[in-house]
Amino acid sequence: MKADIGVIGLAVMGQNLILNMNDNGFKVVAYNRTVAKVDEFLQGPAKGTNIVGATSLEDLVSQLESPRKVMLMVRAGDVVDQFIDNLVPLLDKGDIIIDGGNTNYPDTNRRVAALREKGIRYVGAGVSGGEEGARFGPSIMPGGDPEAWPHVKPIFQAIAAKTEQGEACCDWVGNEGAGHFVKMVHNGIEYGDMQLISEAYHFMKEGLGMSHDEMQATFADWNKTELDSYLIEITADILGYRDEDGEPLVEKILDTAGQKGTGKWTGINALDHGIPLTLITDSVFARCLSSLKEQREHAASLFNNPITAVEGDKSAWLDALRQALLASKIISYAQGFMLIREASESNNWDLNYGNVALMWRGGCIIRSAFLGNIRDAFEANPELAFLGLDNYFKDILESCLPAWRKVVAKSFETGLPMPCMSSALTFLNGYTTARLPANMLQAQRDYFGAHTYERTDKPRGEFYHTNWTGTGGDISSTTYDV
């Protein structure tokens, strides 16, 4: 009996996906460029299963049922291209290559087009959930050549996480790099969510002077509210974890955050598409700032800028902080969906935003209780431009606004850095302001660069230039930027 799918790459994610596929009744061929790892896997975690190994790409391909399905779980970039180049001569028309890594979506666009010319169907599938998700049910976001979907759908939907209603957290996203684009935005929201939670922890610890037991209990309680989510849950676990000496381990971790690029890609794409993804971009910059550890320590020794205590009723401040965190999290997701909508329209992907929310409902890092409400919002109004205009989310944002402003104002007053909660609030203030001061900005641009402006008393689309000094010209600039 030939195998249903081959998986290349036996790092943590690859191994756990293979074991997951085996549990769900699929026969899998495992291969790794370092062949010794195949033997280690077969004699270790895969021992006693139906998983088989391959000693070469030729061996792997020969063991697969047609149309052959080969999934790459390797480092994004050149390694993927190398495996594709080596696989294509071994495959037949109609065979399928799947990239399950964190690939930048333009690479997936390119590969889908190039392989279609050779008759090979290509899928770029975002996979989220980490080690545990891969093993027991990840969120999977496949896109690429739609002709491949019927062949990979039974496997992907079987191994994916399920909602409480039994729906698979996996569905076809769209053509070309749509799947990897949605995964990229997922990771951007993840960056924002993690930073927001870290800011809440910082407010509790440095502002309210709370113990780790108090903070752990608070996050555990918050996880029983609308904040119910994977990241809130693990934050409570982290705060309760003690090192060998009984001290909280989190305080022994150096405060320099790493990143692998997906948050940065999200910010770059937001700039390219003209979408104000302020919170997520600020979360990336917060990691960049954290990396300047030695500079920060030196500056702290020179500046008289201490963090002062937050005075007042602790329970009242904690409730305000909970509301600020909830509202900010909603803005993070809302901005992410704004970017997804713009990309869908500009690339003609015709994405189903409710389905995207469903795919994130379970298995993935940003799984959250209110993703069900996000799905409901887009099912009720597929043209919804901003999630905060849906009645459910609008009511939450409006009710949280006083507490949110109070927390952000207090962070400025006490010297607590709060880049993402304040960014989220500033975004909502701007988005809900009918007239912004950009009229002054346009006047400045026209003054120094003759860039023109539109008028409030004239139809949109008509542009004007003023000779502001009387010594300038009447010719407007349409060909250069200053």
C-alpha Rg (nearest Å): 25 Å
Unreliable stretches covering 5 or more consecutive residues: none
N to C succession of SSEs: EHEHEHEHEHEHEHEHHHHHHHHHHHH
Estimate what percentage of residues fall within beta strands.
5-15%
Query: Order of strands across the widest beta sheet?
Result: 3-2-1-4-5-6-7-8
What is the SS-derived class?
A: alpha/beta
Mean pLDDT: 94
The coarse overall form would be globular
Number of strand elements? 8
Residue share in helices?
40-55%
Number of H/I helices: 19
Distance between the termini: 67 Å
Largest sheet: 8 strands, mixed
Organism: Photobacterium pectinilyticum
Pathway: Carbohydrate degradation; pentose phosphate pathway; D-ribulose 5-phosphate from D-glucose 6-phosphate (oxidative stage): step 3/3
Pfam families: 6PGD (PF00393), NAD_binding_2 (PF03446)
GO molecular function: phosphogluconate dehydrogenase (decarboxylating) activity
Give an overview of the whole structure.
- Residues 179-469 form the 6-phosphogluconate dehydrogenase C-terminal domain.
- Pathway: Carbohydrate degradation; pentose phosphate pathway; D-ribulose 5-phosphate from D-glucose 6-phosphate (oxidative stage): step 3/3.
- With 482 residues, this protein is of the alpha/beta class.
- 52% of the residues lie in helices and 7% in strands.
- An 8-stranded mixed β-sheet has the order 3-2-1-4-5-6-7-8, with helices on both faces.
- The longest helix is centred in the C-terminal third of the chain and has 34 residues, at 314-347.
- It starts with a strand and ends in a 33-residue tail after the last helix.
